[in-house]
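Narrative of accomplishments. A recurring question from our advisory board has been how the design workflow behaves on a single, concrete structure rather than in aggregate. To address it, we present the structure tokens for one chain from the evaluation set, followed by the sequence designed for it. No filtering or post-editing was applied between the two.
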């Protein structure tokens, strides 16, 4: 038995949370799928923060990593502020690891990051700075403050976030460009929130 989550359990948990990022359910209460998407983003962030092996396992599984990264990019274009902020912070955690120090050539705990995943991460780092390293103000972001970032993406301000995130459409991997583009289309066609 494992004292911590086993690798298979980690990938299953991340896969289940990934499916929550697709929830678009709407009923008489409104966009209830947004509640599921938000909780999935928050749970992924907690998983990444709680155990370095989670991020390492995801980075070493090309299919899972690219699907997850695509959905996180899609969520980073959300019109709903709390979703966009959660997705932006999760995206930075995915790209930079717990403290922005994840090795670029090898994962954590001896797992090698997949070469395609690593290339995509490197490309996205050109467009998405590590705001935790650049003076990100979590309190300002959590309270809706417009001055949440210094030299990073201000995920609270949709226009500012979109202006910077649009450059990520030039990433070479189509499986990342497509969900990001779809996110921009959905955000652009949605009623103002």
């Amino acid at each position: 038995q494992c004292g911590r989550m086993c690798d298979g359990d980690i990938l299953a948990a991340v896969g289940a949370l990934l499916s929550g990022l697709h929830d678009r359910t709407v009923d008489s209460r409104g966009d209830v799928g947004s509640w599921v998407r938000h909780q999935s983003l928050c749970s992924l962030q907690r998983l990444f923060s709680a155990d370095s092996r989670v991020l390492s396992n995801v980075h070493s599984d090309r299919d899972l990593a690219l699907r997850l990264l695509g959905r996180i990019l899609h969520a980073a274009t959300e019109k709903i502020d709390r979703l966009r902020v959660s997705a932006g912070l999760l995206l930075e955690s995915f790209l930079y690891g717990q403290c922005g120090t994840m090795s670029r050539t090898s994962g954590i705990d001896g797992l090698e990051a997949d070469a395609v995943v690593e290339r995509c991460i490197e490309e996205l780092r050109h467009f998405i700075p590590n705001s935790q390293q650049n003076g990100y103000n979590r309190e300002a972001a959590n309270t809706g403050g417009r001055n949440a970032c210094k030299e990073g993406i201000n995920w609270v301000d949709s226009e500012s976030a979109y202006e910077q995130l649009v450059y990520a459409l030039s990433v070479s991997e189509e499986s990342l460009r497509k969900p990001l583009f779809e996110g921009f289309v959905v955000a652009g066609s949605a009623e103002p929130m």
